[in-house]
Structure prediction request, 883 residues.
Amino acid sequence: MILMHIDRFEEYLETILYLIRKNQGPAKTKQISEELNVSPPSVTEMIKKLYSSGLVEYTPYQGVELTEKGTDQAIRIKRKHQVLETFLVDVLDFDRKEAHKEACELEHAVSDAVLERIYEFLGSPEYCPDGNPINIDKNNIRREEKFIPLDEMEEGSSGKVARVTLPRETKERLISLGILTGEDIEVRRKQKQGCISVIAVGSEIALGRDVAKKIFIAPKSKSV
Amino acid sequence: MIGISSSCCTSGSENKSKTPYDLTIAFIGNPSVGKSVFFSRLTGVGVEVSNYPGTTVALKRGIVKARGKTIEVIDLPGIYSLGVANEDEKVTKRFLIEDRPDIIVNVLDASRLERNLYLTLQLLELDIPMVVALNQVDLAADLGFLVDADELSELLGLPVVPTVATWGIGLDEVMLVALAEQGKTQEHHRVRYSQWIRQALSSLDYAFPKIPPSVKIAALLNDAEFVELCCMPPEANALLSSARRLRQNLEMEHGISVPDTVARDLYGEAGYIVDSVVSRFEPKKNLRERIDAILTSPNFGIAVLVSALLLTFLLVFRVGGFLETWIVNEVFEPYVILPAEAATSDMPPVLRNLIIYSLRGVEAGFAIAIPYIAVFYAILSIFEDSGYLTRAAFLLDNLTHKLGLHGRAVIPLVLGFGCNVPAIMAVHALGTRREKRIASVLISLIPCSARTVIILGLVGTFVGFWPAVSIYVLEVIIIVGVGWILGKSLPGQRSGFIMEMTPLRKPELKSTIRKTWMKSREFFYIAFPLLLVGSAFLGVADALGLLSIFQDFVEPISVGLLGLPSFAATALVFGILRKEMALQILAVLAGTANFAAVMTPVQMYEFAVITTIYIPCVATIAVLKHELGTKDTALIVTFTIFLALGVGILIRVFGPSFL
Prediction:
């Protein structure tokens, strides 16, 4: 394989994995071209190459699926991305957007050995700063996310805080107000675009959208 | 290394004898639990507000005499925990450790007991004698909670006194109980941490037997500041690094987060205590909830909010404006300024100006303080006490977010149209420094009622109604633009919006009056020195002819660049003292109040816009300096000068095609 293409391959595999998880089904060519910002013909071209390398399967009008080999590779690269992003944000203090961009570049260059050291150094976190899981089960890539971000909860619904992916100071503030993993909360008020308020430890706390987005909830079933 | 004898947390008690007080009592509690009402009722007038050394966090100190003892009482800022999340928490923690008060009075809100106990449990670990004031028991009863104070006292191992601070119930008892606790050793309740934390603590116990448990918990939580305050550097470092190893071990081997686990243990404990002391009953179905739901409903809520803000604005504007005119025209001019002018007519001009201008400074102070600050704070405290403020902030966060501000900032912003001074004083509650800075800059640009006098008196009268309105539009565009740019570019943590919604309740007249009085007095303390010095300086400069030198000096700018009459520069200098004085002096210098005879419409328009933008008035500068410090204030002042220049030039160039 031509070395130059590896980056490109990995980029595609990562995107396809992302779309499969998002769609809960095959990734569409059109989506891929939108995600990667390339023309549909070049997507088709690339998919042919990936197919001949045994990484994907393609059904016309259905979309692209990953083969076992493809899944392996995609998960590996995705994991690299998440770990690097976590490292850039948590240790080097990059902001999320920059970290994402940098991670996109670095993920293709970093070796598995270096990556595992970084992962250990970080204390083997389960989630990256965006709240995505770092370790994806390859047998179950479509596994449905059980946690939903707080800003997508309905008014009046309740659940348990599953994880909070916010900077330390904000997290501490939330902890001192009773919003931390393992505690129950109930959505009290919700605006269409703006704030959301929850009942935590008996008092009502209003949260801005950008805070609520980073708090993930394991919802309780409605029947009590 | 371990053998170094510990000086941990014992340093405070030795130098106690140096203070002139028999006893120091610190008040501490969550925000909006009625702690300040409590404090102000207790201390009455003799309160001194000072910043904690090296910070902008205000500490109120007062003196109370009881049972023949002189007691210093200190009102610590409202905090939710002894953590590291913000400056208030850090200052409180530092105060408790370094100054080590004799007794802590922890004010709890009975209606939100469980959350309030989080802080209480943290305080208990410090082993300072403590009394709990269980406040707002009336509100709790309204909401369906009855708290058994004796049981709570039993569980926590300290005295608990039920109070209703707004009515003054139980206050004396708290003080008497606190006095009786002096010197006693209390057997405080200890939090039972979960297994992993206990294990970590006991391995720290083994290595550092002399260090108190609270410091070890802090070390486990990686609160280096706390540990360093309590221990000598070598020991602090040793403790912190042992704790770091233990923490990393826990986090990697067992996948548990230490801060979360400790917090959960504290809440678990709080929940257990609440279950044993609180009996719940179904509250009678009341209007409260229905009103509450309406206040934040999508459409009606906004309507209520807009009308509330408009009403407030009108009140501040009308009532404040009326009172101001009355104070200036009916009180100061005939009874103070005129007699003073007559009495000083024989004096040398420098002395004469010194006296007259200082009096004018006092006049400016009263003309702002009484009408605007008092009216503003009366309304703000009603908003605050009723719990509506938090609902308004909830509704508006989305909008203000675009300006890099929280929903809370809207109230000061809107009310800045009445007067910038109280608006900037209200910025204090905004949390992060970044937000305080953005809000302060924006407020300084808001056309307050004094600027409105110029806009209406000059442009409204001599140019036209719509041009006057267009100035407001222009101002709003400038403010939104500046806010947007600052929001994007200003460094500092963009903290997300997190705010406790206080329960709705009927505001109390007494508390409103008290807050209004406190804030007006605060303004006098902050602004009067600068007002007096500034006015006196201006007077002397005028008498010595410095102003005309200045006028000549800036002529290339004022006439050459901006195209204004040369005397306008002097008028602008006086505008710094009190904005509407720019217009009065302009009339004096022009020799006529018919400005149309001496200035073109474009000149008038330009003058009005420049007066609204350039340098905030002296009183505003004084509060800015108090809130943000000298450097930021200087920056803001410089920024407004350049902004006014820029906008002025634009008006000169493009104005003629519109006017």
